[in-house]
Write a structure and sequence with these properties.
Strands 1-4-8-5-9-19 form a 6-stranded mixed β-sheet, with helices on both faces. Strands 13-15-11-16 form a 4-stranded antiparallel β-sheet. By secondary structure, it is α+β, with helices and mostly antiparallel strands. Helix 1 packs across helix 13, helix 3 crosses helix 13 and helix 11 packs across helix 13. Strand 2 and strand 3 form a beta hairpin. The chain is elongated, with a radius of gyration of 24 Å. The longest helix is centred in the N-terminal third of the chain and has 33 residues. It folds into 2 domains: 301 residues, Zn peptidases (Aminopeptidase); 122 residues, Alpha-Beta Plaits (2-Layer Sandwich), CATH 3.30.70.360. It is built from 13 helices and 20 strands.
Length: 468
C-alpha cells in the first residue's frame, strides 16, 4: 500500500460526497424502477421478468458510456439454460488493476403477501428506508456500482486507466446453478485483480463493515428404519420402537445439554473482537424474552466462526393426518454450517460418522442427498482489503470493522478457484433491519448513500495503484 492510494481517498472524499448527494435522488429513482420488476429465477415464476430485469440493468450501464461492451449473456447446465446475466467490460491500461464488480438482479419470491406491510413490488419510502423485495438484496448492490462508476467518470473526465468489469448475475437466489459454467465460458472477460461482491452488509447502519469470513455448508438427508411396515401404536407401543422415536433421539445427539454442537472433530475459529452484547443478539434475531441462548463462548464466535447444526426438515406424519401408528421410517434434513478453514468433505464424513455411531435401538440408517459449500476467509494483508477499509471509514466517518457471516455464499468458492490470484472483497448495504429473504425487506437509505461514496473512493484508489 502506498501513501498515494490513501491520500487520494482523503483528498477526494469531499468531492465524492458532493457528487453522490447531488445524484442520489435520481439513482434512488432508478433503484425503485428495478425493484418493481418481479425477476425471480425459480421455475414456478415467469421467466420473462428476468429478461426485463436484465435488459433494464444493461441499459443503465450502457448509458454510462464507460464500457467497451455491455452484453446480456447466459450459460447452461445439463442442457438447461440459466438466467440472463449482464456482463460489461472496460479494459485496464498502463499497468492499472481491473476491478470486477458483482451483484445480482434476481430476487427471492415475496412469500406470504399478508406478512408484508406494503406490496412487495411497489416500493415505498418511510422512516429513512426503501421497502420492497430486492431493495436491499441485491438491487441496492447494482445501483451502488452504477453510482460509483458515474462518479468516477465525472471526477476523472473519463480519463482513467482502471479496468472495470460488471457482472450482474440473474440466478443467485436460485442457487446459481450455471454460475461455474458462466465463469469458465467467460473467463477472459471476467478475469480481474480485485473482485467486489456487493451482496453482504454492515454490522449496524453506523458501523461500516467488510465481510471477511463466511461459514461453509454441509447439508445431509438421513433416514432411519425400525419396522418393515406400520403398526397400531396401542398394540405394540412400549415394546417396539418406531422410526420417529429413533430419529428424534438421533437428532438430539447432535447437541450437548448446553446447545453446543456435539459432532467430534469439527474445527472452530475466533471472530474479530467486536463489541456485541446479548441485548444486540436478542434485538437482531428476535429471540423471545425468557428463551435462552444456546452454546458457549463469545456470541460472534458462535454465529460466525464455530460450527452450527440445524434440523431444517423432518418427514414423518403431519399432525393433520396423524393416527395411532408406529412409523416404519422417518427422514430428516440436517444443515451443518462449518467454520472457515474446515474442509466440507471432511465435515460430511464426521457428521455421517456421528450419526452412524449414535443411532438408537439398532435402527437401520441410510444417507441421502448431500450439498457441500466451501467456507471463505479473506487475506487481510492484501492491498485491496486495506484500501477498502480506508474507503469505508471515510464514507461513514467511523472505523471500519471486519465481520463474519454465519451463512454461506457458495459461489465465492467458485470465484476463488477460477480466479486464483484475485483479491475478493465482500461488501454490501444490508443491516440487521434489512430483513433480506423475509417480508418487509428494506434498505437503509443513508447506508446506501455511504456505500456509493465508499465504492467510488475504492475505485479512485485503485486507479492510482500500479500493479507489479
Amino acid at each position: 500500500m502506498t501513501q498515494t492510494e490513501f491520500q487520494v481517498i482523503a483528498d477526494q472524499t469531499p468531492n465524492v460526497e458532493q457528487l453522490i448527494a447531488q445524484s442520489f435522488d435520481g439513482t434512488l429513482a432508478e433503484l425503485i424502477e428495478l425493484v418493481k420488476i418481479e425477476g425471480i429465477a425459480w421455475d414456478a415464476f415467469d421467466a420473462n421478468n428476468l429478461e426485463l430485469s436484465a435488459q433494464a440493468v444493461a441499459r443503465l450501464f450502457e448509458a454510462t458510456g464507460v464500457f467497451d461492451f455491455v452484453d446480456v449473456r447466459r450459460s447452461a447446465v445439463n442442457g438447461k439454460d440459466g438466467a440472463p446475466a449482464v456482463l460489461a467490460k472496460r479494459a485496464a491500461k498502463n499497468g492499472k488493476p481491473t476491478f470486477l464488480l458483482y451483484a445480482h438482479h434476481d430476487v427471492q419470491p415475496p412469500g406470504d403477501a399478508n406478512q408484508w406491510q406494503t406490496p412487495p413490488f411497489e416500493p415505498v419510502q418511510k422512516a429513512g428506508r426503501l421497502f420492497g423485495r430486492g431493495a436491499a438484496d441485491d438491487k441496492a448492490g447494482i445501483v451502488v456500482h452504477l453510482a460509483a462508476i458515474r462518479a468516477l467518470k465525472t471526477l476523472l473526465n473519463d480519463d482513467f486507466d482502471l479496468g472495470i468489469t460488471m457482472f450482474i448475475e440473474g440466478e443467485e437466489e436460485a442457487g446459481s446453478p450455471t454460475f461455474r459454467n458462466f465463469l469458465e465460458e467467460n473467463r477472459a472477460d471476467l478475469a480481474a485483480d480485485v473482485i467486489v461482491v456487493a451482496d453482504s452488509g454492515n454490522l449496524t447502519t453506523e458501523t461500516p463493515s467488510l465481510t471477511t469470513t463466511l461459514r461453509g455448508l454441509v447439508s445431509l438427508v438421513v433416514e432411519v428404519q425400525t419396522l418393515d411396515h406400520a403398526l397400531h401404536s396401542g398394540m405394540y407401543g412400549g415394546a417396539v420402537p418406531d422410526a420417529m422415536l429413533a430419529l428424534v433421539q438421533l437428532l438430539a445427539s447432535l447437541h450437548d445439554d448446553r446447545g453446543n454442537v456435539a459432532v467430534k472433530g469439527l474445527i472452530s475459529g475466533q471472530a474479530a473482537p467486536i463489541d456485541y452484547s446479548e441485548a444486540d443478539l436478542r434485538k437482531d434475531s428476535g429471540l423471545l424474552d425468557g428463551v435462552d441462548q444456546i452454546g458457549e463462548g463469545a456470541i460472534l464466535d458462535r454465529i460466525w466462526t464455530k460450527p452450527a447444526i440445524t434440523v431444517i426438515g423432518i418427514d414423518g406424519q403431519s399432525v393433520a393426518l396423524s393416527s395411532n401408528t408406529l412409523l416404519p421410517t422417518a427422514k430428516a434434513k440436517i444443515s451443518l454450517r462449518i467454520a472457515p478453514g474446515q474442509d466440507p468433505s471432511e465435515a460430511l464424513h464426521l457428521l455421517q460418522q456421528h450419526l452412524a455411531q449414535n443411532v438408537p435401538f439398532g435402527a437401520k440408517i441410510s444417507f441421502g442427498e448431500v450439498e457441500l459449500g466451501k467456507p471463505f476467509e479473506a487475506d487481510l494483508s492484501k492491498w485491496a482489503s486495506q484500501l477498502a477499509g480506508r474507503a469505508l471509514a471515510a464514507a461513514w466517518k467511523a472505523e471500519s470493522v471486519n465481520i463474519g457471516i454465519g451463512g454461506s455464499i457458495p459461489f465465492i468458492a467458485d470465484l476463488t478457484e477460477v480466479f486464483t490470484e484475485a483479491q475478493i472483497l465482500v461488501t454490501g448495504v444490508e443491516d440487521p433491519d434489512s430483513r433480506a429473504h423475509s417480508p418487509n425487506e428494506s434498505v437503509h437509505l443513508e447506508s446506501l448513500k455511504r456505500a456509493m461514496i465508499a465504492e467510488t473512493l475504492l475505485l479512485l484508489g485503485g486507479n492510482v495503484k500500479r500493479l507489479p
